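Per reviewer request, we include the raw input and output of the structure prediction for the construct analysed in the revised manuscript.
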Amino acid sequence: MPKVLLFTLVSFLCALVAFAPPAWGQAGVVDISCQGTESTGGGTSTYEYSLRNNAAVAVTLTLFYIGTLDLNAPNYTAWVEPAGMNHTMGTWAALGPGFSVMFTTMVKTPHTVVPPQQSLATPGGVVWYGSVVIPANGGTVTFGYNHPNASVDVEWFAEHPDAVNSSQGFSPLPIAGPITVYTQGYVHAPGTEPNPVEPTTWGRIKALYQ
């Protein structure tokens, strides 16, 4: 092979490696169950996420985040996180260049159902950061919060540097949850609209006579 052609081929292959996307979403390392009460997921918080380690060795989780449509921090209360992890939230620009923009279908798809293949960027994310070890062979850690808004489907991302780097949600897979049902599909997170309030019994009685 002529030297010039060989040089060109090597340069092209090096360029492909240099611009190859990161190895996100490696199946079978960490998956998730969306189990918040907002979507009858069987958990205890309005929005709740259980991450499961499927590896034969323990993995260290250093970052977990999801997209959200609501960036009003006072709406998030009663945070749940394992020891060693902290939480924050904000726009993607405020969170910094180390975060990937998470996407949403803009609708709420039931658990175990594949969501519609439409996606828009969320304005920001809910983030947990720090360090926690997830035990091997099905060990789990749980995150959550209470929030008044109705949910939409969103993407998620988990960083675990000691095991295939990271895992994330994929929209062509069924929505994760309810409790004990784990997938690498999307999860539910707050949308822009509050859940409707069920009228009181007295209110319903008055409405009948108006």
